[in-house]
Amino acid sequence: MSTPRYYLSAAGGVCRHWDSPSICFALNAIQLAGTAHYAVMIAFCSCYRYYVIAGSHHGEPKRMNILFILFAIHLPTLIVYANFAFSPLLEGPEMEQVMNESHPEYDISMHSDQEMLLVTRYGLSVRLALYWLEGLIIPVVIVVIIGAIRINRILASIDHMSANSKRRHTQILKGILWQATLPGLYAIGLIVYVATKRKLINTDGIEYITIMIGSLITVLGPIFTLYFTLPYRNELKRYAISFNPVSYLACSGFYQVGFTKETCRMYRAPSCPRKHQLRC
C-alpha cells in the first residue's frame, strides 16, 4: 500500500481494539526489528561456530566477551527501529487525504471495523528502517555460506574428531544456512506486489502478505533448529515413536468404553496414576 511519499500499513486483530495507532505502529516496528535481529544472530552463530572450530586451541571465548559482542552488533538495529517506532503518524483529515489521493478505491469507513490504518511520511527514519532490513539479508547469507564452506573444510582435515561429532557440526551448519535463507521469503511479497501493480493478478489483502511472511519465518526458525540439531531431533523421534494415543487417552482420563479386555491389557499405562488407567 505504500507510496513514494508515504509509508502505509494496516493493523488488525487485537491491536485494532486498542484504538491506539502509536501502539500498533510500535508493534510493527518491533516485528521488523525482530526480523533484523534474527538475521544478525544467524550471521553471529555462523561466525561463532567458525571461531570455536578454527580456533579450538584457544578455547571457547569468555562469556562477557560474547555478551559485549552481541550488544555491539545489535545496538545499531536497536537504534534504527527505536527511531522508526516514534515516527509521527498522520491522523484524521490529513490521513484521509493521503488515502484518497493514493488509493481512491479504498473505502476507509467500510474497513474501519476490520483494520486500523498507519500512515507516516517517508522520512529518514522510515527509509533507514526498511533499507536496513533489506540490506541485511544478502550479507547475512554470504557470511553464512562462506562460514559453512570454511568450517566444512576444517572438519574434513581434522583427524582427532569423531565422525559423530563432525556429523553434528555439519547438521547445525545446514540448519543455520536454511535459517539464513528464510528472510528471502519476503521476495514473495515483492513479487506479488509488482504483479498486482501491473495487473497480472488481482488479489485482496496484499497488505497482509508481509505480516504473514514474518509470522511464517517466526515459526520455521525454531522448527529448523529442532530438526537440524541432532540431539533435539533424536529426542523428538524417540517421543514420536513411543507416543501411544490410546495410552495417552488413558493417562488423560479420556478413555472410552468399548475396549476389549485384550486391548485394555495391551495399552495399560503403568506409569500413569492408577485412577487414570484403563479399567480392565
TrEMBL record:
Pfam families named among the record's database cross-references: 7TM_GPCR_Srd (PF10317)
GO cellular component: membrane
Membrane spanning stretches: 35-54, 66-86, 129-151, 172-196, 208-230
Keyword list, A-Z: Membrane, Transmembrane, Transmembrane helix
Membrane topology listed for this record: Multi-pass membrane protein
Subcellular location(s) of the protein: Membrane
Main location: membrane
Similarity section: Belongs to the nematode receptor-like protein srd family.
Stated name of the protein: G protein-coupled receptor
Species of origin: Pristionchus mayeri
